Amino acid sequence: MPPVATLEDYLELVAAVEDTAARLETPVAIEGYTPPRDSRLNVLKVTPDPGVIEVNLHPSKSWDELVERTTVLYEEARQSRLGTEKFMLDGRHTGTGGGNHILIGGDTPSDSPVLRRPDLLRSLIGYWQNHPSLSWLFSGLFIGPTSQAPRVDEARNDSLYELEVAFKELDRNINLVGYTPPWLADRLFRNLLIDSSGNTHRAEFSIDKLYSPEGSAGRLGLVEMRAFEMPPHARMSLAQHLLLRGLVSKFWTAPYRNDLVRWGSDIHDRWMLPHFCETDFRDVIQDLRDAGYPFEFDWFAPHFEFRFPRIGDFAQRDVQIELRTALEPWHVLGEEGASGGTVRYVDSSIERLQVKASGLIGDRFALTANGRRVPLHSTGTQGEGVAGVRYRAWQPPECLHPTIGVNTPLTFDLYDTWNKRSLGGCTYHVAHPGGLSPSTFPVNAYEAESRRLARFFIQGASQGRYMASPEPLNRDFPFTLDLRNV
Question: For the packed helices 118-130 and 234-253, what is the interaxial angle rounded to 10 degrees?
Fold first, then answer.
């Protein structure tokens, strides 16, 4: 198809091709230029991407339309033997790695709620920055400053200060002229909602199609929420949509104007543990309920179980210990020469898990990981503490600190400080303890579960009397015991 100026010309040309093909009884495939962008035209794009097939659905004007299209998409993918989930070699249940990006906009740029009310974008940015659980709960494995969707306070140290200046400029222009022209909303935030390299697309809030100065193709009035990964079930995807729709509706009525928070290292320490992530998300749900939207936390329980799967637990002397997978940002390494150019490796060898203990009695009981005291912090519940343990799970040829070996298996002990001995414990392996590491992926959820269960044992506690001295306080990561640095 050649390039044409209007949709009517394009449809007329397609009709002529169709009539000719019918008369000649010859099947044809339409290739070439796409039709001109027109709000009257629904476009469904299916694009092959590395490891996944990307499907871009056309906008939904109502909740019923969104439910129907999302449900049909998941079902059609299943009928085509395509999955929205996968299992890793060790049996871990993860997403496909493909995004479930949500776009906020309208039929035309003038209909876009973000251009009509730029304070809506401010509210979303500020609320997401104040509630880290919204950044981590729905994302994929690759998170952090160099990921596909870094938070606004991860890319640059001075970004929050500059963002506050942009917020004041937005208020000043609204008070001065009574409205904000669409180009100004783009200019205020375009150079702040970026990654560390200045890429406007790789950001948690991508506005490269909001009102770009380069041309009409980037002036669509769209904000892309990129920190959403494809969940395994259609209802989980719809729950994400419903949450965002509820927050947009709440901020349309009452804009969010709370100050930005300087989280510092807390953003990669406290908020990557499932306990604190859940506590923060419960605050989000309560905010929606206070605004008149009857959300329930239980609607998102599958997201938490999927994002922070339970590893195992054990109990001794009425003390219950639970292990859950926590989050760990992956670091992009420096450039290296390779055939055909340069490459940058991603270090995914560092993992983290959460240890949560309940039923503790004062300072008598402590928890150790490989003989090191875990820095348990109170959760506000009597006798309950939580902490993270960071460790090297495997040792690739290209990684941070290549001279530091693997820290696994991890042995956890409930340590009695009065009697200087372990009361019991458990052992967690990142691979099959007998060396029978599989070379193929699990065929279904049952095989994946068996692989996970084969790596956790309620045995292996340290024997005899020994001294487990408290670790020096890590001021950068007080909630985490880093076994690489002990």
Answer: 120
Contact 447, 345 (CB under 8 A): no
Distance (Å, whole) CA 274 – CA 136: 10
Q: For 72-131, what is each residue's pLDDT tens digit?
A: 999 999 999 888 888 988 888 888 877 888 999 988 888 889 998 888 999 999 999 999
Residues 6+ apart with CB under 8 A from 331: 144, 146, 346, 347, 400
Task: Provide the 10 A C-beta neighbour count for residue 334.
Answer: 8
Amino acid at 221: G
Q: Token pair of 237, please?
A: 């995807």
For range 297-306, the mean pLDDT? 94
For 192, 255, 310, the CA distances from 291, given in Å and listed in that order, are 30, 12, 33
What whole-number distance in Å separates Cα of residue 112 and Cα of residue 39? 12
Q: Per residue in 44-67, pLDDT tens?
A: 888 888 888 888 888 888 999 999
Half-sphere exposure of 96 (CA within 13 A, CB side): 18
Say if residues 163 and 261 touch (Cβ distance below 8 Å). no
Q: What is the largest CA-CA distance in the chain?
A: 93
